[in-house]
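INTERNAL AUDIT FORM
Audit reference: QA-55
Scope: verify that the stored structure record matches its stored sequence.
Auditor: D.O.
Record contents follow.
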Amino acid sequence: MEAIQVKLLREGARLPQRASEHASGYDLYACLPDGPVRVGNRPVRIGTGLAFAVPSGLDAQVRPRSGLATHGVIGTFGTLDADYRGELFVTLYTTAPDISYVVEDGDRIAQLVITRLADVQFALRDELSETERGAGGHGSTGR
């Protein structure tokens, strides 16, 4: 098991935790020393109070929580690069102008999913192999 170093930047910051034994993501928590934050349909950055040292070769991705989506709150996907050492923020917004949501200190606001990176090269070609789908765009494979 590999370790990811984490620095607590503020009092009240919480380490990421799995909500259940088989969860693939680690919950990220809001760290809001100045009080609750209202989220509307414009993006708002929510601090976690954490900085990470992700080892090279690992991919740390911030993903939305389905529990927030049921309230019309969407978290943006994000990547925590191995060379970034600043605070991890989660960007939240609501799906409609008439929806607002209040994030409290300690609320679960996103998930952190860790995977291994594939080391690849990109090879430029004049032509690509043919497939049945071809250049069919979004929705081309059915509903």
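Auditor finding: record pair retrieved intact. Residues 5-116 form a domain with the Deoxyuridine 5'-Triphosphate Nucleotidohydrolase; Chain A fold (CATH 2.70.40.10).
Action required: none
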